[in-house]
Design brief:
heterotrimer; A mainly alpha (219); B mainly alpha (241); C alpha/beta (259); A: 219 residues; mainly alpha; MetI-like fold; 9 helices; B: 241 residues; flat
Chain lengths: 219, 241, 259
């Protein structure tokens, strides 16, 4: 089945492919960081007692979750330069798109994590004389973090896979770089199988690690 | 927004209006056909993962691990560019030359098999959430394994997983947009095309966005009704996402 | 020590608490009983401000609970509370549970807080279990740790919200024994419970609750042997109480049926 394929082409284009991998990693790292920060802000707003704030965030989250990520990428790719009035590199437009998109998912995970802590825990903490802030810090958040960390990590692995969608705006991540080589030298099989294999190994190992973490720290 | 010339009426003119309609139609068709593959296949995989047989469990887990750890876009390229090369030469030739609607069919198969892995996960967790005692009680009254699944486990499990399944069904609609990378003219690609021809980016993308939101809203509504109709009296269920 | 006057709370037409008036003096043990859903839990949670109320006053040692100016955390550190579901913090060991509030609210240093925790655990008969997590302890053990956690704050009064309702019959006894010992030492206690035996033997005053209002209150002798209100009689007989101890009542019923 694999006769006639030349896997040496991978070695020949290694530097080019490596740059693609770097871009994928960069984009993922920045998007995860930005998404988490924004996600925390959104979750806090969603849990606050200020109703309009909570509704606004709920609307934002539901809205972003109704749309395909590709469409969101197109939106920000065309919008960001228009809004800032200057030409913005594709990388930054796409990064903003990813941050805004992932923050919606992260905020839901964070909100669920905090809500999953039993109500009685807050009562018990406050009955001892702890202030709201102390109760949050020593009783609620430690438990919430244990619950939500595996889910947040899993979502980040999903994010790593989602970055491949930058293909639609031509950003040279791992997949797009491989695609460029594949089209140029007419060797799709070797390139795409390589990309698939790398993702498979990385994501599978990462998921296994997350599972082990979950088992160790489950409450 | 600076010097932007709004041009909503252009969307109602041909050929742009026709593009939107056909794009939307393709999106729905891809999603429905992919789900038609994903639901039965995913159910089989989910059930296999809860079976007594170790081989079945391993096969199911392997399937899910394979399809969940490779990005969907990479899978799409593999199906479209690589699989025809790997098939025995007669089949390969047919796929490359004589198969009708190659891009469309490839997208449907890719999406269907990927979503099956997600459905498999939901079905598995739904069945596993039923206490072991139920299975034991059913076996104790003399039911076969098949009957245990058919009459005891599946009716309860599927009711439990309606909310996450809804989520995955919506996911199919959203993921249909990936078909544009192999040339299928679904909704998002049509919006992009209108933008390239008319520079009415905002208008074109808004229409696409509104249509996706409408589909999402409609599906969630229908699923709520389904959930209410099939609810077991007295049981507590989780709300839809 | 604690005074409740005309305390009321409602949601639209539904009256959770209706004009409740009662009091508890220092060193007294007051038991609140009544059918499920009668509002007893809500009432006791109003005393330390965990539940708000709409009308009336609650004063604890002169401090008004409903007053906006009151420093609630400070007040709560003087009131100990034990919950039906124990509510131990699952991510901390038994000792850490007992130490947390001592450090963060009372400002004690870690060493003395841990020493006090160990002393209390010994009093509860749980000296070797200090390093265990709640999930590793039985229900009765968890509740005793919860009592120790509350006692570590050296409260002036202890509130118990159905402390044994979530326990198996075998472990109820060990928790009630701890509570009786506390009462014998002179702790001021308010206990919401269904354990009528405990009420009869330990309480100085019994308050009977129904549909959010106090239908009768008095010394145990009055409530259990000669209640003034018919509703009280109904409620007690539902619990198997016929003016004698439950065991005797069962025996009487059995011989009447000609077993």
């Amino acid at each position: 089945m694999f006769a006639g394929f030349d896997f040496g082409i991978l070695w020949a284009n290694a530097p080019f492919l490596w740059n693609g991998i770097l871009l994928t990693l960069q984009l993922t790292a920045l998007a995860v960081t930005g998404g988490l920060l924004l996600g925390v802000v959104l979750a806090v707003m969603r849990l606050s007692s200020v109703k309009p704030l909570a509704w606004a965030v709920e609307g934002y989250v539901n809205f972003l979750r109704s749309m395909p990520l590709i469409l969101v990428i197109f939106w920000f790719y065309t919008l960001v330069p228009k809004l800032t009035g200057r030409p913005v590199s594709g990388f930054y437009s796409v990064l903003i798109a990813f941050i805004m998109f992932e923050a919606a998912y992260y905020s839901e995970i964070i909100r669920a994590g905090i809500s999953s802590v039993r109500r009685g825990q807050i009562s018990a903490a406050m009955a001892l004389g702890l202030t709201r802030l102390q109760a949050m810090r020593y009783v609620i958040l430690p438990q919430a973090l244990r619950n939500m960390t595996p889910v947040l990590l899993t979502q980040s692995i999903v994010m790593l896979q989602d970055t491949s969608l930058v293909y639609v705006v031509g950003l040279r991540d791992f997949l797009t770089s491989a695609d460029i080589v594949a089209s140029r030298d007419n060797r799709p099989t070797e390139l795409y199988m390589f990309v698939a294999l790398v993702f498979l190994v990385v994501c599978f190992s990462a998921s296994r690690l997350v599972n082990r973490l979950r088992r160790r720290y489950a409450l | 927004m600076g010097a932007y010339n709004w041009n909503w009426p252009i969307l109602l003119k041909e050929p742009y209006f026709g593009w939107i309609v056909s794009g939307f139609g393709k999106t729905i068709l891809i999603a429905v056909l992919a789900w038609a593959i994903a639901f039965p296949l995913g159910s089989a995989i989910g059930i296999a993962r809860t079976a007594e047989s170790r081989a079945l469990r391993f096969a199911g887990t392997a399937y899910v691990d394979l399809f969940r750890n490779i990005p969907l876009l990479v899978q799409m390229f593999l199906w479209y560019f690589v699989v025809p090369e790997l098939l025995p030469s007669d089949w390969g030739r047919w796929v490359k030359r004589d198969m009708p609607y190659p891009q469309f069919l490839t997208a449907v198969i890719c999406l269907g098999l990927y979503t099956a892995s997600r459905v498999g996960e939901q079905v598995r967790s739904g069945i596993e959430s039923i206490p072991r005692g139920q299975r034991n009680a059913a076996l104790a009254i003399g039911l076969t394994q098949f009957q245990v699944y058919r009459h005891v486990l599946i009716p309860v499990a599927y009711r439990t997983i309606i909310p996450p399944l809804t989520s995955d069904f919506l996911g199919v609609f959203k993921n249909s947009s990936l078909a544009l990378t192999i040339g299928v003219l679904e909704l998002t690609s049509q919006a992009r095309q209108i933008e390239e021809y008319t520079f009415a980016a905002f208008e074109a993308f808004t229409v696409a966005t509104v249509l996706y939101c409408m589909v999402t809203g409609l599906v969630i509504l229908i699923m709520r009704i389904v959930e209410n109709r099939t609810r077991i009296p007295g049981a507590i269920t989780v709300g839809a996402s | 020590m604690i005074e409740l006057k005309n305390v009321s709370k409602w949601y639209g037409p539904f009256r959770v608490l209706d004009d409740c008036t009662m009091g508890i003096a220092k060193g007294e043990v007051v038991v609140i009983c009544g059918p499920s859903g009668s509002g007893k839990s809500t009432l006791i949670k109003c005393i330390n401000g965990l539940e708000p109320f709409k009308l009336g006053t609650i004063t604890v040692d002169g401090v008004s609970v409903g007053d906006r100016a009151t420093n609630l955390p400070k007040l709560r550190s003087r009131i100990g509370m034990v919950f039906q579901n124990f509510e131990l913090f699952p991510h901390m060991t038994a000792v850490e549970n007992i130490v947390l509030a001592q450090q963060k609210v009372l400002g004690r240093d870690r060493a003395s807080a841990e020493a006090k925790a160990q002393v209390l655990l010994e009093r509860m008969g749980l000296a070797e279990h200090g390093a265990k997590y709640p999930a590793q302890l039985s229900g009765g053990q968890q509740q005793r740790v919860a009592i120790a956690r509350a006692l570590a704050m050296q409260p002036d009064v202890m509130l118990f919200d159905e402390p044994t309702s979530a326990l198996d019959p075998e472990t109820i006894g060990e928790v009630l024994a701890v509570m009786k010992a506390l009462a014998d030492e002179g702790m001021t206690m308010m206990v919401v419970t269904h354990e009528m035996d405990f009420a009869k033997r330990v309480a100085d005053w019994v308050v009977v609750f129904d549909h959010g209002r106090v239908i009768e209150q008095g010394p145990p002798k009055q409530i259990f042997e000669a209640p003034l209100v018919a509703r009280t009689r109904d409620f007690l007989s539902h619990l198997g109480w016929h003016g004698e101890s439950t065991a005797e009542a069962e025996h009487a019923t059995r011989s009447a049926k000609g077993a």
